[in-house]
Amino acid sequence: MLDRLKPQSPDALLALIKLYAADERADKIDLGVGVYRTNEGDTPVFAAIKAAEARLVAEQDSKSYLGPEGDLGFVHALMPYVFGDDPTMGGRIEGMQTPGGTGAVRLAVAVAKQAGVTAIHMGTPSWPNHAQILSDVVIDFKPFDHANDDGTANIDTVLQVIRAASEGEAVLLHGCCHNPTGIDYTDDQWDAIAAAFADSAALPILDIAYQGLGHGLDEDAYGIRKVLAAVPEALVAYSCDKNFGMYRDRVGALYVMARDADGLPAILSNLNALARASWSMPPDHGGAAVRVILNDADMTAQWLEELATMRARMRRVRDRLAEAGDVGSLDLRPLGHQNGLFSVLPLSKDQIQQLRDDHAIYMAGSGRINIAGLHQGNIDKFISALAEVTG
Ligand code: LMR
What we know:
Elements: H1 12-22, E1 29-31, H2 47-59, H3 72-83, E2 93-99, H4 100-114, E3 119-124, H5 128-137, E4 140-145, H6 155-164, E5 169-174, H7 187-198, E6 203-208, H8 217-220, H9 222-230, E7 234-239, E8 251-257, H10 264-278, H11 285-294, H12 297-324, E9 326-327, E10 330-331, E11 342-344, H13 349-359, E12 361-363, E13 368-370, H14 379-390
Parallel strand pairs: 1-12, 3-4, 3-5, 5-6, 6-7
Antiparallel strand pairs: 2-8, 7-8, 9-10, 11-13
Helix pairs in contact: 2-11, 2-12, 3-11, 4-5, 4-10, 6-7, 7-9, 13-14
């Protein structure tokens, strides 16, 4: 029976990791999968995580099961960073730990479907796994254009989509550092989005996987907080994989805001049942390390400093690209006001292949580049390679 299965192509983004590793050219540049890199091209473990892990090893007295909700100490410690001064919105928000942001999005979509959502609107391009998850959960995906050609967010369309959405529909938005475009809504645009949701029957699903990599923790949470203040219900998928550098440890959380505190237990019981049937309970280690950091003032200060260093370095790379201005047929200026790890360059498939073959530069087939893959030692080579293939 299993021989009936048709071969599937590997996930294109993850396949790029192997292609890059197999390339023996010394000056190769990896702009593929979304991991932060230092000016030396490394992705080190955060010092704050190392310290928290050392404490965990010394103090953890059991690895016995928790439950489908995972480490609630971790889930709750994160909430003030995500939701601000009233992190439970008067007892209406609760969360659970998930295996990375992917687990959180998967659970959000699955529970929305269980609650009667039949279609999800989402701006495209988006993180390719969003569409894969929607397809796997079997829910109707209604795409709309996320961005304008000039590198700004297509606010009119998203507002129309939210206003026109009916009961039984959800709208999925990226909280900050849009993946893949880096094109975020401005604060004024978030105000308008929140007002549109207030007048709409649509359920907001907000995915925030890069908090702190844009302009700062509070700044990057502006949109989420605005929307939550305006609506009765929402789902928020969160990832610590990037802002704590925990990628392979899979550290995420799904938060739900209910109409009122009394409504939370029923929703959480559905989430617990879905999690139990999917992964039983999330991997513990990464979430526990994040909890240790957030419960210790010195470790928290160290983490915030490391995050600020990452943010500043990515901003410098963006500034340098923007300064280059017109490069071949490209205008790199918009990259200067985009945010986070990613931007998309309007390159053809052939140009992307040529960059790989002739210059050992690896990027996603969509033209998405990982800004953090660039540094002082390779950015000039990257800019001249772009000029050559597009000139
Ligand atoms: C990315 O978009 O590169 C990251 O979110 C990693 C992933 O899981 O796709």
